[in-house]
Amino acid sequence: MTKNLAKSAISQKRVLDAAARIFRDYGYAGTTMRAIADEADLKAGSIYYHYKSKDDLISAVLDIGIRAVTDNVDKALKALPETATGRERIEAAIRAHLSAIIEVGDYTLATRRALGQVPEPIRARNRYMRDAYGAIWQKILADAHERGEFNTTANLSLARLFILGALNWTVEWFKPGGRPIDDVAREFAAVVLDGLSGNGGAAAAGPSESVRTPTLP
What we know:
Keywords: DNA-binding, Transcription, Transcription regulation. By secondary structure, this protein is mainly alpha-helical. The chain has a domain at 54-197: Tetracycline Repressor, domain 2 (Orthogonal Bundle).
């Protein structure tokens, strides 16, 4: 029984990984269950054993991407001491976010390609998860702002959009085996945090204004 469950889990991962690659390359509209089966080197019936439709598959792929990021950032923040500064918390979140989207790169790219094409019920369900993740970042930034670590005129909602948008774009150019992800995270954090803590120009809206999180992994 245990062996059968293990085989089933391995087969399901093959299906998901293959689906992520096909959605990445062809989007939601251009993807077929047959193409995913061929990519996974499985019979079409094996795909339907795990997922009844293309909608079920894209929903699973989208969820894996955002859960990977959310879980990694949450874990990184919980590992920090209570005395951690806002800067330390943001640096940790940046590093965790980058590590996650690189690790599940095909899922991240599939999301970027397919999210705007999926049926609205699937997009709405996934958007709820993305908004919850955006709220984590909003709190980190707001806490640092309240501690006086940032420019008091900074629009934190726009800062959040900028940070997440730039982080998510990393998967387009980052090459495994090149620069260490820690170096990229450290330099990215320096650009963001030095800007927020400086005396740059003020944004038109206040720091508490709510803006929807952009597309995530």
